[in-house]
């Protein structure tokens, strides 16, 4: 059995917040605003896993008016959702994700993000996790540096698959 899911998230860039993306704290003059640590990439991946499982979205599982999730570590939220996938017998096929940001430069931090995500999703090989980044050529809210977006697709696999 194969299931796919997709996720998309946006957070505003503001002063006085850490810039945490893919579980990695990136040195930058601004950070992402949210109820949790606002890790836009992990939120998109979490939503993709939930989508593949047919279990709604991140806000349904971790409401943004629940004090329990104030400044929550989004890696813990992803790990919680991944446990739901494991309970249903799924393992990771692959995950592919794109960070949409004019700045900061993500490339130096992507290998570390891949490591974090691969560990959280029990990947057997790091090639099962791919993270990309793109600017929007200074167009739109991401291009103006007002926020960062991320999107992801996830493929979950259960049982034996013939090639
Ligand atoms: N925030 C970002 C955006 C992009 N990159 C890397 O730069 C390459 C070129 O981006 P374009 O949007 O101009 O196509 C892209 O392929 C990424 O590798 C980045 O590191 N951080
Ligand atoms: C993660 C949660 C919960 O703390 O809050 P935010 O950090 O605001 O993130 P968002 O992507 O808007 O939605 C999910 C939320 O319920």
Automatic annotation (TrEMBL):
Residues 2-156 form the 2-C-methyl-D-erythritol 2,4-cyclodiphosphate synthase domain. Keywords: Isoprene biosynthesis, Lyase, Metal-binding. Transmembrane segments: none annotated. The keyword Lyase applies. The record marks 35, 135 as: Transition state stabilizer. PROSITE patterns: ISPF. A divalent metal cation binds at residues 9, 11, 43. Its EC number is 4.6.1.12. One of its GO terms (molecular function) is 2-C-methyl-D-erythritol 2,4-cyclodiphosphate synthase activity. Pathway: Isoprenoid biosynthesis; isopentenyl diphosphate biosynthesis via DXP pathway; isopentenyl diphosphate from 1-deoxy-D-xylulose 5-phosphate: step 4/6. Its cofactor is a divalent metal cation. The keyword Lyase applies. 4-CDP-2-C-methyl-D-erythritol 2-phosphate binds at residues 9-11, 35-36, 57-59, 62-66, 101-107, 134-137, 141, 144. Belongs to the IspF family. Involved in the biosynthesis of isopentenyl diphosphate (IPP) and dimethylallyl diphosphate (DMAPP), two major building blocks of isoprenoid compounds. Catalyzes the conversion of 4-diphosphocytidyl-2-C-methyl-D-erythritol 2-phosphate (CDP-ME2P) to 2-C-methyl-D-erythritol 2,4-cyclodiphosphate (ME-CPP) with a corresponding release of cytidine 5-monophosphate (CMP). Homotrimer. This is 2-C-methyl-D-erythritol 2,4-cyclodiphosphate synthase. It comes from Paenibacillus medicaginis. The lineage of its organism: Bacteria, Bacillati, Bacillota, Bacilli, Bacillales.
